[in-house]
Amino acid sequence: MSVCVVGLGLMGSALARRLKNVGFDVVVFNRSLDKAKMLAKEVGVSFAESPGKCCKEADVTALFVADDEALIDVVLMPGGIAEEVRNRDVVNMSTVSTAISLRISRVVENGGGRYVEAPVWGSISEVLEGKLIAMVASSKELSENVKRFLSAVAQRTIIVGEIPKAMALKLALNQLNMVVVAILSETLPFLKLYGIDFKIFEELVKGSWMEPIVSRYLKRAIEEHPPRFKVELAAKDLQCFIESARIHKLNTPITAATMQRYLEATINGYGEKDYPNIAKYILDTLEKLKKP
User: Fold this and answer.
1) Mind listing the domains of the chain with CATH numbers?
2) % the chain with pLDDT above 90
């Protein structure tokens, strides 16, 4: 069985590696072709020069692109997936707005293909180990190819219903997670300003509902580590949540304020860092202000 992986960021690249390691034939495409060629050579897979060719060469096409614009591009560009989708499965693992996912589902299905939403919960290590949690929505019954593909990358598959319910669920999970983490970008600088050691704060919250949050994110907030999820992508996902809420006339001012914090950190050079580093951005800013 062959899988086309479109989009070779952190998650897409890890997906290609995972599929190759468990015996799938893999074809990759990235809008930056040099990146696709490099990964193909490194992992020992094929690369395609257009998303349509990638789709044509595979049984399942997995989309792992960055945002709404990228998804529209790889599907509708000249030589895009829409031109080669007939009788093929397209599994969208990207996190995008619900409106765009609906739009792309119609394009794929009008072209004779089968569209499946399958955004995932987990990061690079979970992809490589096949331990993702996939949230799945589709207007049709899943094909055996899609089931086999998902079983290779996800330890749990949760069937949500019709499109765009899986995307809405993923956006809700990301929104809650990112808002909670963003609180630390104010809590930790506040403690710093009053000279309170973070270890005292950790000790204080032990045994409370806050302990898992603080223990999970404190070091990731104040130290630099390889990103599990980038600051700039957190800002994008929150914007997708806001837009997806707006079409149903739901006002989300807390999410909007949180999105602005991630965007501010991105603008100031922290976009490529792990998303809890928005706290480090504020702490670093405070240190710069102290200097004469």
Assistant:
1) 2-161 (3.40.50.720), 168-290 (1.10.1040.10)
2) 98
